[in-house]
Each structure stands twice: as structure tokens, then as C-alpha cells.
Design a protein that fits this description.
Elements: H1 3-34, E1 41-46, E2 49-55, H2 60-63, E3 71-75, E4 78-79, H3 83-93, E5 98-105, E6 108-115, H4 121-144, H5 158-171
Antiparallel strand pairs: 1-2, 2-3, 3-4, 3-5, 5-6
């Protein structure tokens, strides 16, 4: 194969993979851009059920009256048996939407409604940082691996393209 053929194939393959990954990530991000839902409470699974371990001061859960040690029975009528279900249900509810929690506190059951918050600024910055790192590793990998088949920079081998494109997925917090 000629150098031009390697280059054309590698560029086409890289663009195709990037476009596919970007479109999938864009679909996930459409949901996540609105944000990762946050109720301001750390839930843990115990022998008694899913309990509030830490309630952030002035967060949605604190404003709704949830206290550490409260047991979560349901969110919007959906029963909660595991701490993972809390996250799944909150994603379904979405940030900036109301959620009604059914809580058990010392044998007394009550309902409390809160507005689920969106992602923190810290989380948004972390996501951007990881995406920049992934892109940086991808570019460095392409430029440094062009010697694999003796091509002048910025040409690279097919195996290196696949390897370095994977760094985009590894560094992505959404994969």
C-alpha cells in the first residue's frame, strides 16, 4: 500500500470512529448536560434498607427535611430497595424536576417533596478536564506512533489509530 492509501484510510477510520463516539456521547450528554441529578444526600444500603448517610447542608434533601439515618422507601411511588435504584430513579426524574420521597424515620412514615438539583460546577469542570486529557493523549499518540511503519509524521499505523482512539473512551467519564 502507498503512503497516501495509509493516510487516507487512517484519517477516514479516525473520523468515522470519532463521529460515531461523538454522536453516542451527544445522546448521553443531552440527558447529562441538563445534568446529573443530585438530591444532596448520600444513600447507603443497610440491613434496614436504603438510608441517608450524609445530608448536605442547604441541599435539596436538607430543605425537604431529610435527616441522616432516615430510610428511603420510594421516590415518586417507585419502591427503592437498593442505593443504585436511587440514582436510576433520579435520572428518570431528571434535574430541576420535583421528586416525592417516601421516608421512614423511627417507625413513622412521611412524604417529602424536593426539587432535584443539577450537576455541580465541580462535576462539569471535571468532565471537561477529562475530555481535554483524552484528546491530548489521542493527539500525542498519533504523532508519536507514526514511526511504527516508518511513515513521516503525522502518518500513523492502523493499529495505533485504534489504540489511541480508545484513549478517548477511557478518559471519558461517560463511557
Amino acid at each position: 500500500m502507498k503512503i497516501a492509501d495509509y493516510f487516507t484510510f487512517n484519517v477516514f477510520a479516525a473520523l468515522l470512529i470519532y463521529w460515531t463516539a461523538h454522536s453516542r456521547r451527544a445522546q448521553r450528554r443531552a440527558k447529562a448536560e441538563v445534568g446529573c441529578p443530585d438530591d444532596g444526600c448520600s444513600w447507603i444500603q443497610t440491613g434496614q434498607g436504603v438510608q441517608a448517610q450524609l445530608v448536605l447542608q442547604d441541599g435539596p434533601a436538607d430543605r425537604a427535611g431529610i435527616q441522616p439515618g432516615d430510610t428511603l422507601l420510594a421516590i415518586n411511588g417507585h419502591p427503592v430497595q437498593t442505593d443504585r435504584q436511587v440514582t436510576e430513579i433520579l435520572y428518570d426524574v431528571g434535574p430541576w424536576n420535583p421528586a416525592t420521597y417516601t421516608i421512614n424515620r423511627a417507625g413513622s412514615e412521611f412524604k417529602s417533596t424536593m426539587i432535584v438539583a443539577g450537576p455541580s460546577l465541580h462535576l462539569k469542570r471535571q468532565r471537561l478536564f477529562l475530555e481535554i486529557i483524552g484528546l491530548f493523549y489521542f493527539l500525542v499518540g498519533i504523532l508519536s506512533s507514526s514511526a511504527d511503519i516508518g511513515l513521516p509524521r503525522p502518518f500513523t499505523s492502523i493499529s495505533s489509530v485504534w489504540l489511541h482512539l480508545s484513549s478517548l473512551f477511557i478518559a471519558s467519564p461517560e463511557s
